[in-house]
């Protein structure tokens, strides 16, 4: 408890310094429920009061943790018991305290809550949210362990939640902090190291970091030639959507040893205009991308798609996107990576007899992605503001009860990435990465999910680089990818004593 409470206290101190330039004299409201989460809030409140912070502690339970209450005694923190107050009085107390606050700490409930908050806790959280939103200068919200009331295991939002700017979480990032829709309420997630040994657990959800991606990325060696680095075959584009072919091949060309393009003459000319390095026509490849810019009623293009699927599935990794998704055989290996957006996933699930709308997928993206994995055996990358990747669970490793593995939840992009053709760029990045690690993926198919998550991270970072906070087009994202990979692979600058580079 001491480590957790201290981490919360320090997060608040940091927020106060950033906002007010100091700590003493800052105004902090701590919402406290029953249990250990509330206890962490109480100890943090006591520590803040000792630093000269003006602290209001609003308790939503009649029985806040005794040790924490004792720590407050004798200090300057003001305790306001809301559980015993009349509802109108309680709501006024919340509004009066939260409106002028610099920081609000949400220590109402932790991982023990299922199905959303109830009673006083729910009312107080809803009122706090309203007061935060109405404040002329909204306070910084710090959540303890999780924003109270989120679905800790599945990322659901079953009721009122106070969205946090920072979540100080204990030991390990809980799945609900990473998974949509709740992930948007978590803000920046700071994991407090409690010294737990987590190496033998398969996490339900995970997020790759830059360092993970650097480890996964194939780097050419002195003995390499273009074929050994991996050749990517791309079946993309059509007379209707030639641009998708340009976008997918432009993203892939700098990353792969070679890109072979298969598509109509018109699109091929555009591809060569943009990327003369691309080789037109089929040949031996180490991975395929099939489907970007292929309409699902385009008979001629679907013939190329089916040929590539017949040649590639089970032999090399295959990215199956857009129009190719409905051309997929019933069962495939995890080395096939499906890359639908929510609308495409809804259509796929419906085609397999599970009538599903886009809204259904958006309401439960993790469940929908897991269902698609169970139906097909494929790895599924569901595109969105948070992109999810999940494959079948590894043999001999305990996973979810439906036979699916860890869900990677990558939120590395920017909302400016919601633009036509961005998905075609992602398909190119992922295809090139799979071509570079083709033999490893075929030897160990669960690797496909980690690589797909890595591609999503690089794609998101490239979007941020291209955007620099403003608008972008998909081709800008493709152009930013090599620089992002270079930055990820650059060895960290280590400074020696005195800040100088070691000699
Ligand atoms: N430069 C290129 O070459 C590009 C090529 N691209 C390629 O295009 C192909 C099709 O992919 P896609 O995802 O766009 O189509 P798809 O999943 O069928 O969704 C259609 C759904 O959208 C909806 N909808 C349409 N307009 C709407 C509106 N204004 N406002 C709201 N909703 C609207 C429409 O809904 P409805 O109008 O039916 O209600 C329907 O449900 C694919 O091969 C891709 O690779 C793209 O990457 C783009 C760049
Ligand atoms: N709000 C958002 N924030 C971040 N990334 C987004 C957002 N909306 C979409 N994206 C990303 O943009 C891409 C859109 O892909 P897709 O829907 O297939 O578009 P298209 O078919 O036009 O290429 C995906 O990689 C998705 O993850």
Automatic annotation (TrEMBL):
Keywords: ATP-binding, Isomerase, Lyase, Metal-binding, Multifunctional enzyme, NAD, NADP, Nucleotide-binding, Potassium. Its cofactor is Mg(2+); K(+). It catalyses: (6R)-NADHX = (6S)-NADHX; (6S)-NADHX + ADP = AMP + phosphate + NADH + H(+); (6S)-NADPHX + ADP = AMP + phosphate + NADPH + H(+); (6R)-NADPHX = (6S)-NADPHX. One of its GO terms (biological process) is metabolite repair. PROSITE patterns: YJEF_C_2, YJEF_C_3, YJEF_N. It holds the Pfam family Carb_kinase. Binds 1 potassium ion per subunit. (6S)-NADPHX binds at residues 244, 293, 341, 424. One of its GO terms (molecular function) is ATP binding. InterPro entries: Carbohydrate_kinase_pred_CS, CARKD, Nnr, Ribokinase-like, YjeF_N_dom, YjeF_N_dom_sf. Its EC number is 4.2.1.136. Residues 1-202 form the YjeF N-terminal domain. AMP binds at residues 383-387, 423. Residues 209-488 form the YjeF C-terminal domain. Catalyzes the dehydration of the S-form of NAD(P)HX at the expense of ADP, which is converted to AMP. Together with NAD(P)HX epimerase, which catalyzes the epimerization of the S- and R-forms, the enzyme allows the repair of both epimers of NAD(P)HX, a damaged form of NAD(P)H that is a result of enzymatic or heat-dependent hydration. In the C-terminal section; belongs to the NnrD/CARKD family. Homotetramer. This is ADP-dependent (S)-NAD(P)H-hydrate dehydratase. It comes from Miniimonas arenae.
